[in-house]
Amino acid sequence: MSKLTRGVRIGVDVGQVRVGVSRSDPDGVLATPLVTLARDLTAAPDAVPSDLAQLAALVAEHEAVEVVVGLPVNLAGKHGPAAVGVKAYAGRLADVIAPVPVTLTDERMSTVVASRRLAERGVRGKRQRAVVDQAAAVEILQSWLDAQRRRT
Questions:
Q1: How far apart are the C-alpha atoms of 115 and 95, rounded to whole Å?
Q2: Percentage of residues in the chain with pLDDT exceeding 90?
Q3: Which stretch of DSSP H or E encloses residue 131?
Q4: What is the pTM (predicted TM-score) of this model?
Q5: Is residue 105 within 8 Å of residue 71, measured between CB atoms?
């Protein structure tokens, strides 16, 4: 029975425009929102985009032992164009933060769930768009942490 190693995990929700980031406590019990980064789509092909550089800085700052990236699987369980983009992003991130591992996890409903939870709390419109990526990153990381605990 493998126990989850102690240490902070960073959760990442990769969007077309923004990247939501969350973190866990060192015991891997609770995910909390951290920040929303703007996607840097203007970086030269051989340069590290600023959002990846910022993520790497967060990994170092929080001494993260792992990064969990949400993989958008469609409801039929297939990998569409969005998943291909996220896999490429996760691959680049893994290169930038090595040797810290990057894990992909199914996040097919995280943004929907995050939006619904925010709406239930009265967070709507522009305010919701500002935090929904962080909330989705929390959903991704929390469900991954819960799944790890169920496996032990």
A1: 31
A2: 62
A3: helix 125-151
A4: 0.88
A5: yes
